[in-house]
């Protein structure tokens, strides 16, 4: 049995298939002084499946509703040099998860925080979506309020990265309609449902086609929605000329070229040559 270092140990738990637990996570479950979980029943069941005994330890609950009351007790245990394990309900801790508050409190108190990585719905969805994964932005759950949700989507529309959302089956139909309106119906997307579970399903198509494909369906289970990045903007000569005129009022040629190239998604060298020519004509 490996020696467990004192500190807060954040372990990833399976998002579906129980065998997706890591060997390191099992070592920590067996050896940590204190076990804490978002859902105590789920963690105890996982330990039973893998033959990890409690050995007199309790599994303490830590979730959105009791976090403020539990944190002082857990921080005190960490100060005393104990090893405290925290497990999310499913997946990697701190990703749309109440464990963030606990980790932040430990870090603020200069206490050790360790991560034992493993299953992640975000990464699993990116693997099977078939969309660019070199740059992605995790958006989490959309806000419940319509105005806040629209603002988030307006901001997301221009992010030059693949977008990853969590959404519930009850709200996915409405959300897809809003995505079509704010991001464009032709954006490619992948709806990943029940990843690693018996009824896993991945739909890959445009947002418009996806909206129609599930219109008459009642979906169940956890959903990760992956949406392709905003298409590259194609700037014509007039747009480039106007952008350079504006930038050159307050910037040097080099600074203006860099800024305009970034804003318009154009090669910096070409924009720099255009800026030089414009500056000579002044």
From TrEMBL:
It catalyses: cytidine(1402) in 16S rRNA + S-adenosyl-L-methionine = 2'-O-methylcytidine(1402) in 16S rRNA + S-adenosyl-L-homocysteine + H(+). It holds the Pfam family TP_methylase. Keywords: Cytoplasm, Methyltransferase, rRNA processing, S-adenosyl-L-methionine, Transferase. GO terms for molecular function: rRNA (cytosine-2'-O-)-methyltransferase activity. Its main location: cytoplasm. NCBIfam families: 16S rRNA (cytidine(1402)-2'-O)-methyltransferase. This is Ribosomal RNA small subunit methyltransferase I. It comes from Roseinatronobacter ekhonensis. The gene is rsmI.
């Amino acid at each position: 049995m490996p020696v467990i270092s004192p500190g807060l140990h954040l372990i990833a738990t399976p998002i579906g298939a129980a065998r997706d637990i890591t060997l390191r996570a099992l070592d920590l479950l067996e050896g940590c002084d204190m076990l804490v979980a978002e859902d105590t029943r789920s963690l105890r069941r996982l330990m039973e499946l893998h033959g990890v005994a409690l050995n007199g330890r309790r599994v303490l609950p830590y979730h959105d509703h009791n976090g403020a009351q539990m944190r002082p007790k857990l921080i005190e245990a960490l100060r005393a040099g104990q090893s405290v394990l925290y497990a999310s309900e499913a997946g990697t801790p701190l990703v749309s998860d109440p464990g963030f508050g606990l980790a932040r409190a430990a870090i603020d108190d200069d206490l050790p925080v360790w991560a034992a990585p493993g299953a992640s719905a975000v990464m699993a969805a990116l693997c099977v979506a078939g969309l660019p994964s070199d740059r992605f932005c995790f958006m989490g759950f959309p806000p419940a309020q319509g105005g806040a949700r629209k603002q988030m989507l307006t901001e997301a529309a221009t992010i030059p990265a693949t977008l990853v959302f969590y959404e519930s089956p009850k709200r996915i139909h409405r959300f897809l309609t809003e995505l079509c309106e704010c991001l464009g119906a032709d954006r490619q997307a992948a709806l990943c449902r029940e990843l690693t579970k018996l009824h896993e399903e991945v739909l890959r198509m445009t947002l418009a086609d996806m909206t129609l494909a599930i219109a008459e369906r009642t979906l169940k289970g956890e959903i990760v929605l992956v949406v392709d990045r905003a298409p590259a903007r194609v700037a014509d000569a007039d747009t480039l000329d106007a952008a350079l005129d504006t930038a050159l009022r307050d910037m040097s040629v080099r600074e203006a070229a860099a800024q305009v190239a970034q804003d318009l998604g154009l090669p910096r060298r070409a924009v720099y040559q255009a800026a030089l020519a414009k500056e000579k004509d002044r």
